[in-house]
Design brief:
2 copies of one chain form a homodimer. With 541 residues, the first copy, chain A, is of the alpha/beta class. Helix content of chain A is 39%, strand content 19%. The interface between A and B is large, with 85 and 85 residues.
Chain lengths: 541, 541
Amino acid sequence: MKSFKIALAQLSPQIGNIEVNVQKMLEQINQAKQQKADLIIFPELSTLGYPAEDLLLRPSLNKRMEQAFKALSAVKDIVLVFGFVHQTEDAQRYNSAAVMKDGQVLGIYNKQNLPNHSVFDEKRYFSEGHQHLIFEYLGHKFGVLICEDVWSLSTAQQISQLNVETILVLNASPYEVGKPQHRVTTMSELAKQLNISLVYVNQVGGQDDLIFDGTSFVINNDGQVALQAPSFKEGSYYVDYDATQKHYKTAEITPVLDTMAEIYQALVMATRDYIQGCGFPGVILGLSGGIDSALTLAIAVDAIGADKVQAVMMPYTYTAQISVEDAAAQAKNMGVTFGIAEINPIVNSFMQTLYPFFGNSPADSTEENLQARTRGTLLMGLSNKFGNLVLSTGNKSELSVGYCTLYGDMVGGYAVLKDVYKTIVFELAKYRNSISETPVIPERVITRPPSAELRPDQKDQDSLPAYDVLDGILYLYIEEELSQDDIIAKGFDKDVVTKVIQLVDRNEYKRRQGAIGPRISSRAFTRERRYPIMNGWIAGV
Amino acid sequence: MKSFKIALAQLSPQIGNIEVNVQKMLEQINQAKQQKADLIIFPELSTLGYPAEDLLLRPSLNKRMEQAFKALSAVKDIVLVFGFVHQTEDAQRYNSAAVMKDGQVLGIYNKQNLPNHSVFDEKRYFSEGHQHLIFEYLGHKFGVLICEDVWSLSTAQQISQLNVETILVLNASPYEVGKPQHRVTTMSELAKQLNISLVYVNQVGGQDDLIFDGTSFVINNDGQVALQAPSFKEGSYYVDYDATQKHYKTAEITPVLDTMAEIYQALVMATRDYIQGCGFPGVILGLSGGIDSALTLAIAVDAIGADKVQAVMMPYTYTAQISVEDAAAQAKNMGVTFGIAEINPIVNSFMQTLYPFFGNSPADSTEENLQARTRGTLLMGLSNKFGNLVLSTGNKSELSVGYCTLYGDMVGGYAVLKDVYKTIVFELAKYRNSISETPVIPERVITRPPSAELRPDQKDQDSLPAYDVLDGILYLYIEEELSQDDIIAKGFDKDVVTKVIQLVDRNEYKRRQGAIGPRISSRAFTRERRYPIMNGWIAGV
């Protein structure tokens, strides 16, 4: 029995780019060897990245996986535990982990519990494994599990009954609010219950709408946390096992983030990773003087730096002077490129062209949408000309009820606040102001009543219930899946609930054409809530 | 042993509207009773409709299913075989069929083979059944299977070994080109092989991007077809079993459609069902003088009638006079409302507003996109004002390589040709002209070289390979999933293949924000080909 050191490689893969991922793994391996680590563990499917979706179906995947194995086979003097796609001769495909030492494969583990709910589609791609993998190294008995496996009590119990001392868990566990701490708390209970230590490594980084927070950890068999890696940060973290004391020595324990700090950092990382992962030189967004675009701007600047961010104010007749002032003030505060483009001539030109068709029809939301679409087209023009990604600025409350214009303010490649309810937008804005010496978002942007400024003296609350009421109903309907009757029974006004639910159901078509955006909730729209557009479900019971 | 009559109720459900679906079933039951049918069989999940997606997760579903059972329990003197969602006390959810007689449930069958590939996600929602259901009625031994079950040879063999004479198969089998006949051919082989008769009922109707063709059939145990219901048409079809001859008597056998007729009718039904299912009074589309919009217009008119279709020509400087002439000629041929809106003033207005930002940057695709987005905004304005659905007119070849403008020509709620390659667009246009006395699409629209007319003398083939070459490569890459190297090995030019594949991979972001459209291929974009946007997969092997 010997003491040993384990490296937890909390990496951000490039989905599908096996060569680059293996290269990154080799760098971490070299670093771990310099640190005298005896074993290095990588996240779930670390060679490919998670989720690779239908790239998993490409016939040449197997050939590429073989190349990855070949490259990793050259590593000496450290045990590797990494994720890969295992295709067997009987044409089964598994989500697997390999244990490799000096080019020899000591064992292969096929994931047994394949999640196929929420954002997961693993049964589309993988067969279920049916065997445990345990191996002895340096006199210590290790077991291997992959992500969902460790959340299955029966699977965890089975492996703990095989005299395993430490379970190595490879993960690609998507972020949602509070999840980093939830994992640690739950796993700490499990470790104590099963009298087993856990080394838990999680993928980090944004991939399309999914955020992986990392927050890898090591927990001793008494439930004590020995290591907690930071969230939203790539890197290798080390822990030492003391064979005499039979426990992992306390290493870096990153303090838990407050909720708003956690969400903010999640959005910043996701936004940065999307921009850089898609190869954009920078971003552009429309700054309206309202809080959504103000917060989006702050996140963009924190993600990639002010020099790569362009903001454009596009006032119209109904834009208040203070909106222009506040937008300009914030752009100046943050040091971004700022321009103003009046849209009156374009909107008038649209109106003139449409006049022969419209005749004397009374004005309605059509005219409001023309303003929004003119702005969208201008942003796309600037994006096309200079290559910057358009960030769209709508929030989850708006998207839920369709209080947004398709091809207008919904224009963009990444919707930073897509999964953030308006009430949380306010909290995040205050949080962001609280962490810098001078507030970056002008106070007035936070305190004025929200308005789309698409008609004279318009306020959001003319069309929608107050945001705390709206968000309360939306949360119960979307995240909690309560029925209309059950939401009313909780004390909300019947007519308001009925109207809100109708709006949610009817606006699926808009959301379906919206940009993707980072998921922070337990029921985000993009991949997770799959509703038909033609939908005959009548709310009620 | 008695002779008997079976009704096959080939119905188009309203997804999620259980009350309406049950009402429709009751109407068919009454009709069947008038026809003296002894048994009526409905499609898979007939009470709910297929696919209901996450509506299946709503907590009140069970309560609603109970109401459906109650309504159907009142039926007397005919055996019902229908689809429903079966939630058991141990919280399992099954895709099930019930056999009901005079209010008594004779048996419940839980689907055993749950497809989770292609467009299917059944493992997201359902548990697998493990038991066969057989029942005797009128001296005849029936078995029940649901859709995928009958494609599993082992499942079909098992039930055939239980002395079953006829398998009743409830289906929601999505259409793709050639599938109606493929089903009959395969099932005829199976019937012969297993010496068993098959009564196969399929859902009909469009649901979002999926088309269900119906084409229900009855096959005798010698492989002979006794009934083949029409495709794309709702209704009940009847077959008589002759107990003396021990076979189903030959009834209506609808002739197989030619490929172009089949595709055309599929698109017409899908378009009509989407428009009506979403409750739009009519449609509007941009008519360019090109073949895509010409074909889309023809389909729209055939779907809902000329009086509900509005076409708008939106010429710009680069629009050829013959384009305007051809658009006007077709609109007149087809008797639709037609208007012309010159877009020069609007585009100029955009250019003037953007000039301070663009400076002397040379013109590029930005300016082309402004034209497309101006048109998109005009169409949306007309849609918003009068309530008609915008049909977008792009084809699969364009969408594959991104030869289309997001928020421009991609604007719309339903993209009729989304899954139709350009080479097939030509065939369909010719087909449509062939079935009316005078051609509805002007001959010149079909014969002139395709052009987006976004710059002077532009031709599609300036930017893209010839469409037969392009479509050949796209088919191999998308439908067949061949690698770049394998496509080149088939004799295509290396540079062309490399460029096309790059374009397909890079334009996932555009497709993700595009309108849904009817699936006719074995690998449509909307729901079936799930690729990441941030995608590091390098083409090659």
